[in-house]
Design brief:
- This protein is of the alpha+beta class and 251 residues long.
- The chain is built from 8 helices and 10 strands.
- The strands form 3 sheets. Strands 3-1-2-9 form a 4-stranded antiparallel β-sheet. It has a 4-stranded antiparallel β-sheet with strand order 5-6-4-7. A two-stranded parallel ribbon has the order 8-10.
- A hairpin with a 3-residue loop joins β1 and β2.
- α1 packs antiparallel against α2 and α1 packs across α3.
- It starts with 17 loop residues before the first helix and ends with a helix.
């Protein structure tokens, strides 16, 4: 089990302002609709839908919006979304993974390619970046839910792979990582002990980080922001290791 790392700076964060939050709500609703369409429309019987609903609740998506998103999946005119993963290199040699959920593959491909080009990056072939990432389950709890030792002990007993705890005043709390296939089992065990997690999802976690400094920091963040703001993009991950000082300079 490892200690705290800078992964909170690696997985790009959404919802910085009201406009961004509205966009996030739209993306959460889309994921709920797709999850319900690809399986049963009952979260109790559909693991992907259960994750989508739990994450939507964690972001305060209203209950009626969640219900409408599920119902939309059962309508004959529901949009046919395609899941696509793009991989590329950003400024500073940073690996970037972009997960897209779109009803227009040509539009999505054009937008993602254009943004990489605009901000000094390059799209690569499938597998050109993911070899340096692990596909893991991620479970997050606020620091107030448990001490570092209690969370570590519970995670080990539940079968988790790793725990990172940031218990500072503005810390991110506890982040538990599991094997992809163990996420539901581990999250259920932790929920029985600590209550509902603030977030439960599947993520791409880099095996090795790329330190980014100087002008490359601002350019990289512009790329990640622009990708994150695209309507077709669901998630953006990178292998960037950026110091708190450099992030603070960006305001």
């Amino acid at each position: 089990m490892a200690g705290h790392s800078k992964f909170k700076n690696i997985m790009h964060r959404k919802g910085r302002a009201d406009a961004a939050r509205s966009k996030l709500f739209s993306k959460l609703s889309r994921e709920i609709t797709v999850a319900a369409k690809t399986g049963l429309p009952d979260p109790a019987m559909n693991p992907r839908l259960r994750l989508a609903v739990n994450n939507a609740k964690a972001e305060s998506l209203p209950k009626d919006v969640i219900e409408r998103a599920i119902k939309k999946s059962q309508m004959g005119d529901a949009a046919d979304y395609t899941e696509i993963r793009y991989e590329g290199m950003g400024p500073g040699g940073v690996g970037v993974i972009v997960e897209v959920l779109t009803d227009n593959k040509n539009r999505a491909a054009s937008n993602v390619r254009s943004l990489f080009s605009k901000y000094g990056g390059n799209l690569g072939a499938t597998g050109s970046v993911t070899f340096n990432f692990d596909r893991l389950g991620q479970i997050e709890y606020p620091a107030a839910k448990a001490s570092e030792d209690d969370m570590m002990e519970a995670a080990i007993e539940a079968g988790a792979q790793d725990v990172e705890s940031d218990m500072g005043e503005e810390g991110s709390g506890h982040t538990v990582y599991t094997a992809f296939e163990d996420l539901n089992e581990v999250s259920s065990a932790l929920e029985a002990k600590f209550g509902e997690a603030s977030s439960t999802k599947i993520v791409w976690k880099p095996k090795l980080l790329n330190e980014v400094t100087g002008d490359s920091v601002a350019t990289l963040m512009k790329l990640l922001d622009a990708l994150d703001e695209d309507d077709d993009v669901q998630n953006v991950y990178s292998s960037a290791d950026i110091s708190e000082e450099d992030l603070a300079k960006l305001g």
